[in-house]
Each structure stands twice: as structure tokens, then as C-alpha cells.
Amino acid sequence: FLGEDNSEFIPKYRTCRRQAREQSGQADHHEGMSSDDELTPIEGDEFQKSKDNVLEDSRKVFEDVHADFCDIRKILLKFQEWKEKFPDSYCDAYISFCLPKLLNPLIRVQLISWNPLEQNLAELEEMPWFRAIEEFSDAENISES
Where is the secretion signal located (predicted)? Predict the structure, then answer.
């Protein structure tokens, strides 16, 4: 197909796809929309099962971790206490550079079920991890000023 004029191929392809949809009784296709992204019911069921398995496995990731170390709010509270009690060592440890790497796995687990194409940005901002980081950032700005 590279370098060839395939202008005749496209209408034939569309005609074949349209005939296949008509024979199978798929009436939910909108003309002009790509049918390549459409899943068959079997593929949709398999995808949903796979997605459910991933979500179930993600709930088990931190089940054997002490509660103080798998809750973002509690972790950030410990860092805030450290900053208040020992500001020099906190500053020397470059914690602001370490926190994103430290919190990354915890946030990723919480984002597994989030789909930016189905949910809006406001829902992201209402997630517990987002609120905890926002509060920590506000507390840091207050203490610095």
C-alpha cells in the first residue's frame, strides 16, 4: 500500500464494513464515524473482565502495608512534623524533590480507575490524594511566609 494510490480501496472497504454491519444488525453505527474502534460484545466483555481484574488486584497492592505508610495524608503529616521540628535537616534532605517519587505509587494506584475521557478534571481535584497534597502545599507556603 505504500506509495500506491489506494483511493479505490477506501470506498470498497467502507462498503464491505457497511454490508457487514447491516447483516449483523448493528444499527448503532453513525455514518462518518470510524467502526475500527467499535468492540464486539465478546471483546467488550473480555475488556470489562480484564479491567475488573486489574482493579481488584490494585486494591490488594498495599493491603500488607502499615496504615501510616499507605495513606498520603498521614505520610505528608509526618513530613510536615519533620519540617516543623527539624527545619534544617528537612531542607538539607531536599524533601520537595523526593515527595513526588515517594507518593507516585500511591497516587497511581488511586488513578487506575480514573479515565480522563469519561470523567472531568473537577473529579480529579476532588480525589483524596489531590486534596492532601494541596493542603500540604498550603501549609508549606504558610510556614515559609
Answer: none
**Burial (CB count <10 Å: 0-12, 13-18, 19+), residue 97:** exposed
Measured at the CA of 39, the angle between CA 36 and CA 41, to 5 degrees, comes to: 155
HSE at residue 58, side-chain half, CA atoms within 13 A, is 16
Q: What pTM value is reported for the model? A: 0.62
Range list of β-strands (E), 27-139? none
Would the pLDDT of 144 be above 60?
A: no
Question: Cα 42 from chain centroid?
Answer: 25
Contacts of 62 (CB under 8 A, 6+ apart): 70, 106, 109
Provide the terminal-to-terminal Cα distance of the chain, rounded to the nearest Å: 64
